[in-house]
Specification:
Blueprint lengths: L2 E2 L1 E12 L4 H12 L4 E7 L4 E7 L5 H10 L3 E4 L7 H8 L36 H22 L2 H28 L6 H14 L3 H34 L4 E6 L2 E6 L8 E4 L9 E5 L2 E4 L1 H4 L5 E3 L4 E2 L4 E2 L4 E5 L7 H14 L3 H32 L3 H14 L3 H20 L2 E3 L2 H8 L3 E5 H5 L5 E7 L4 H12 L5 H13 L7 E6 L3 E6 L2 E6 L1 H6 L5 H12 L3 E7 L2 E9 L6 H10 L3 E5 L4 H11 L2 E3 L4 H12 L4 E5 L5 H6 L2 E5 L4 H5 L3 E3 L5 H36 L5 H20 L4 H8 L1
Parallel strand pairs: 16-23, 16-25, 23-24, 25-26, 26-27
Antiparallel strand pairs: 1-2, 2-4, 2-5, 3-4, 6-7, 6-8, 8-14, 9-12, 9-14, 10-11, 10-13, 15-27, 17-22, 18-19, 19-20, 20-21, 21-22
Helix pairs in contact: 4-5, 4-7, 5-6, 5-7, 6-7, 6-11, 7-12, 7-25, 9-12, 10-11, 10-12, 11-24, 11-25, 12-24, 12-25, 13-24, 15-16, 19-24, 24-25
Length: 747
């Protein structure tokens, strides 16, 4: 095992079966946190995983596993190689569909062929353990009613009693396990007490009906949980399991997990790209929707990066592997979402603390309801005991406990489908409160590369000016030269041969074309050659005042024309700024560029700006803005790292870069400025959903607590109301899964 912090502390991870909701996760977490030497317990319902830090000198891993199994959950170590837990946990995040298996069948010889999701995932509900529990209790209930109709009341009494006892037995086992773990107030405990109490007072029909309704509720929770985690599981299944590896001029089909960095794979048209890599040969349209959510294929060629699970739509590509399978973009996205879902938001922590006091309070009220009326007012013991039992059931906080994490999990899944990554509920809550946004300019609000905006002919045509400029700069790798070359390619202008090419640092380049010296250079270079006139100076000033960089093309002693270039705003940037203002968010641009260039971009987009900022200056600017309210910083995740860390929320632009996925609080995989708006809308929708869930859970309980005390509703209505509240809260949270679909349809 890898040491974590001290020589005796190790990191362990397991796959857990049987978790349906955040209540299950809380139950496991609370049980394990009571064990000595156990810390940093993280339980993810979406991935059905358990991670923790363990001092084995104080508590053995066998005791940890036994504690979880006693609560009614299956447990399988995610790794059998105890020397490499951290690596194994990373591999767990990207396991493939064909390497999953049922818990308990993992072979030591095959440590990574473990179950990533529930062993029952993908089955019809009636083939799961909880589905069988529903069918079993339902059958027993039906037989008891048949006995009542066909035989006698006495026989029916025993039939209902037997159905209740058989049905409550597994629930009671889990209740006693939770009790031994120091958790006396679980739904299983309340169900056991309520069923046992109903049998004692002779309400056998209702006892058996309560058990059946409880089973139905658990099955529905399981179906809802499977729906919530389906998006992440679908993402994992998109990963191809094999690749065509080039070996000595031939291709060999190998498992993706065996690929190493620098190896070359062949990707045929229609195939999914098996790795994160770099194209070394071929040009094709790449469908990156599995990674970025962008449905329009992007044309890529040699030198361009591609992501695992993307689809090659047109022609064959040779791709050099840049990341191993366990560290590719899809694996890191899955890992990020799993870790985010396992973390708890401030609201969720508050609800957890509240429920710890809420349940003893409800139990106390139930005891008073059972004792006070009979003892002080001579009321019937049977009547008030029955009402107290109903009160216990309706008081269960299941719906309240899952109200927050169910919404958070759905929001994380919805965001991931659209390339909006957020690291947990803390980030979602913070984004919902944002009132100021600071944008980096280059690569965030702009394309991050210059493009030709104007060609001003002076002594030659537009085409001739561009033709000569391309010939001179064909061998240059300067960003301005690459922009000129790109413009020529789009215009269909061929590159003519040039001789004696020379680079003049700080000035430009010259070459010999058709026997004449041709140069492309700065205004300083042209001025030094004595070619600058007042009219040309005015033209240059006009272009530079618009935030453009000007290069000049000359031949001999004749100035032929001007080429203006600028890092243009992204196409969606202006609309995104307008939408942010409508949301009540004030945008500002922070840039290290000069004020003139910043002014031109800011005026185009319609936002305030601060120019000439070094990284430390950006940190100071963020702090000033933060004094006025919560602020988000959006940057490229590299040179803006200090500002990203200083802001309340740091969001990195970048299609799957390491920095974008691992350093900021979230990332925008599609590089769309509009996705900042979508992220804020999703966060605010999530908080609205959470408030709805809390109100729904507490509201229903308040109503039925009163009706239970007054005797209007009984045991089966109480459990139906509790189950119904849980299901309604879950279904309401699942509405967030359609957020990306609805937003895209609107766009």
């Amino acid at each position: 095992m890898n040491d974590i912090g001290t020589d005796s502390t190790t990191e362990l991870c397991w796959s857990v079966g049987g978790m349906d909701c955040a209540g299950c996760a809380a139950k496991i977490r609370n049980a394990l946190e009571r064990l000595p030497g156990v810390s940093d317990v993280r339980v993810s319902v979406i991935s059905e995983t358990l991670n923790l830090q363990l001092e084995e000198s104080r508590t053995s891993r066998d005791r940890v596993e036994a504690s979880v199994r006693k609560l009614g959950y299956s447990l399988v170590p995610a790794v059998t190689d105890r020397a490499e837990p951290a690596a194994a946990c990373r591999q767990r995040a990207c396991c493939h569909a064909d390497t999953r298996q049922t818990p308990g069948t993992a072979s030591p010889a095959e440590p990574h062929k473990h179950r990533h999701a529930s062993a029952e995932g993908g089955r019809h509900w009636y083939r799961t353990a909880k589905g069988r529990f529903v069918l079993g209790t339902g059958l027993l209930l039906a037989l008891a009613w048949t006995t009542k109709l066909a035989v006698s009341e006495t026989a029916a009494f025993w039939a209902f009693s037997l159905a209740s006892l058989i049905g409550v037995a597994p629930i009671a086992r889990r209740a006693f396990a939770a009790l031994r773990a120091g958790m006396p107030f679980t739904i299983e405990t309340l169900m056991t007490i309520a069923t046992g109490g109903a049998l004692v007072i002779g309400a056998v029909e209702e006892a058996s009906l309560v058990v059946f309704l409880f089973a139905v509720g658990e099955a529905l929770e399981g179906v809802a949980a499977d729906r919530a985690r389906a998006g992440i599981q679908a993402l994992a299944k998109l990963m191809p399991t094999s690749a065509l590896l080039e070996i000595d001029g031939t291709t060999q089909k190998v498992d993706v997990s065996r690929l190493k960095v620098q190896q070359v794979v062949l990707v045929r048209p229609g195939d999914r790209i098996p790795v994160d890599g770099e194209i070394i040969e071929g040009t094709s349209g790449i469908d990156e929707s599995p990674v970025t959510g962008e449905s329009v294929p992007v044309t890529k060629g040699p030198g361009d990066q591609v992501f695992a699970a993307s689809i090659n739509t047109e022609s064959a590509l040779r791709v050099r592997v840049t990341r191993e399978a366990r560290d590719n973009t899809i694996a890191r996205i899955i890992r990020l979402v799993e870790e985010a879902e396992a973390s708890r938001s401030p609201t969720e922590r508050f609800i957890d603390r509240f429920s710890r006091y809420y349940m003893p309070f409800i139990v106390g009220i139930a005891v008073l309801v059972a004792l006070v009326p009979p003892l002080l007012f001579g009321q019937p013991w049977e009547t008030w005991s029955y009402r107290a039992l109903a009160l216990l059931l309706i008081g269960c906080p299941c719906a309240l406990v899952i109200s927050v994490p169910a919404s958070i999990a759905s929001a994380l899944c919805a965001g991931t489908k659209r390339g909006l990554l957020m690291k947990g509920g803390v980030v979602i809550e913070a984004i919902a409160k944002i009132r100021h946004i600071a944008f980096d300019k280059t690569g965030t609000l702009t394309q991050g590369r210059p493009t030709v905006t104007d060609i001003v002919p002076l002594g030659a045509s537009d085409t001739e000016v561009l033709r000569l400029a391309v010939a001179v700069e064909a061998s240059s790798t300067h960003p301005l030269a690459e922009a000129v070359l790109a413009q020529a390619r789009s215009a269909g202008i061929p590159v003519v041969a040039a001789a004696n090419t020379r680079a003049l640092p700080g000035r430009g380049m010259t070459a010999e074309i058709d026997g004449h010296e041709v140069g492309v250079g700065s205004t300083r270079f042209v001025t030094e050659r004595g070619l600058m006139t007042e009219a040309v100076q005015n033209a240059v000033a006009t272009l530079e005042n618009a935030g453009k960089t000007v290069v000049m093309v000359f031949r001999g002693n004749s100035l032929l024309g001007l080429i203006a270039l600028r890092d243009e705003p992204r196409q969606d940037a202006g609309e995104a700024i307008r939408q942010l203002k409508r949301l009540g968010v004030r945008p500002v641009m922070l840039t290290g560029d000069n004020a003139r260039t910043a002014q031109a971009i800011a005026d185009t987009l319609g936002l305030d700006f601060r120019a000439g900022l070094l990284p430390d200056d950006k940190v100071g600017a963020i702090r000033e803005i933060a004094a006025q309210g919560p602020v988000m910083m959006v940057g490229d995740g590299i040179n803006d790292a200090p500002a990203l860390a200083t802001a309340h929320v740091g969001i990195a632009m970048g299609s799957g870069t390491d920095v974008a996925l691992e350093t900021a609080d979230g990332a925008l995989l599609r590089n769309y400025v509009n996705d900042v708006v979508a992220k804020i809308r999703l966060a605010r929708a999530t908080m609205v959903n959470i408030r709805q869930n809390v109100a729904l859970a507490l509201g229903l309980k308040a109503v039925f607590l009163v009706t239970s005390i007054l005797g209007i509703t009984g045991l089966w209505i109480a459990v139906l109301a509790d189950t119904g509240a849980t299901v309604l809260v879950t279904l309401n949270a699942l509405r967030l899964l359609r957020f990306g679909h609805c937003r895209q349809a609107a766009e």
